[in-house]
Amino acid sequence: MVLGRQVKFFDEEAFPEPEAALVGYAWLITEYRLSVPAPDEIYAIIPAKNAKRSKGRWRLLGSRYKPDAHWFAQLTFALKYEGVDLAIIRSLFIALGEQDVTSSILTEPTGAYSRRIWFLYEWLIGQVLPIEDATSGNYVDALNEALQFGCRPRKIARQRINNNLPGVSGFCPLIKKTDAIVQYIEAQLSEKAIRSIGGVHSDLLARAAAFLLLSDSKASYSIEGERPPRNRIERWGKIIGQAGQKDLTIDEIERLQEIVIPDNRFIVPGIRVTGGFVGEHDRVTNLPIPEHISAKPEDLNELLSSYLDAYHVMKVSEFHPVLMATVIAFSFVFIHPLEDGNGRIHRYLMHHVLSASGFTPKGVIFPVSAVILKKIGEYKSVLESFTKPRLRYIEWEPTGEGNVHVTNDTIDLYRYGDMTRQAEFLFACVKDTVEQVLPEEVRYLKRYDEVWEYLNNRFDMPHKDMSLLLNFLTQGKGRLSQRAKGKEFAGLTDEEVAEIESKYHEVFFSDAL
Fold first, then answer.
1. Which are the catalytic amino acids?
2. Under 8 Å between Cβ of 210 and 378
3. Quick check: helix, strand or coil at residue 210?
4. Which end of the chain has fewer surrounding CB within 10 Å, N or C?
5. d(CA 61, CA 74)
6. For range 489-507, the mean pLDDT
7. Could you tell me which residue ranges the Fido domain spans (predicted)?
8. Angle (nearest 5°) at CA 195 between 190 and 196
9. What ranges in 198-316 are assigned the alpha helix state H?
């Protein structure tokens, strides 16, 4: 009997080649048994000296890239090739302790990577190391902006570091500089939106904006599987239309929840005081089956305070609005600070950041929820790409009320993380809005007005009947149903109906406009 070779695994991924050896963050996680989510990309060294290739999640580099088997060399490799992963770095520092970190930095105290590691330790741990302030060496960026998006730097004289991390030590998700995101930014979608509505009459633009607001509000409820009465949809649409006008605070979040859930008899309104999860209950035992577990209630004050501080840092440093909206909106739904209403407020926050930053044209709200509804499968996948890897690091027990009680320290799971997939998704939604949804609605209204004017000049018909006729034609793709011809519009002759249908087709199905 011949036994097959032993297959090695990392983060449930089989090694792509027999000789592959973990390096960088993967090496650190394995060597120090760090209980922290692995990076999306796993780096490994293979024997071929100059190799550089990818296989799925794996990034394979040749032996000439291999660092020494010491945490300092491995972290230096990670910072150089993988970027900054704050959750892994903080977990590593806690495992190492002050003495080990200090002695390693002092072997080369003026080196660029030494100073970056020194800065990250004091920034993340909040403890000053027994090292004299740096007096030489050029200022270096904390974040390599060839790999990840940073913000306007703040100079830190102690380590001679440009702190360009887009957040604060207590909250700082990061986004990789992928080709897709760079292309979205270069497309200048905000300017494109402004150009597309520049020649539109203000009255028509106001009507388009009103429709898009209502469409977005309705879609946001639909995403949650709800069908509220029209007055609630209109009320939430009105709130979306005011996005960006008020400062984002805890009070504002609680105000929004009151609007989303006017009947709060079945929840405790405001910031959560109990555990929370997204998922189902076992039909027999009523035990929770979580797909996502919310941040612990005792962590929420600290988390939300840092979350709002990070938003301020991003705003004043002019971090790109869509990247900022990604971090603020998606982090909110991952933290899940409320008993109910998190999803709708999460999508509202996209509008808030884009409007407050001036990214969306004045008087217009991008109907992001309406686009998300069309991409609902992808949206769920994007949410799960962040939440699922974290579930295995959360220890919990069921409560008597069918809830969850988290028993380990989980705050860092919500403070840090990679939000590249979320950013690419939101950019795609914004692009669809700018290039398709907004122009299509303006085109529709122009065509609608042309047919309206024709009907108004051709027939002595009440406006309410003209509106109904146009709705029927739209529903029938330019044809009036036999029922409508025999009931609501029995007064029209067959020739007149044919003339109206012909005009509708001429206007709506030509490429003239």
1. 336
2. no
3. helix
4. N
5. 14
6. 93
7. 248-399
8. 95
9. 202-223, 230-241, 250-260, 300-316
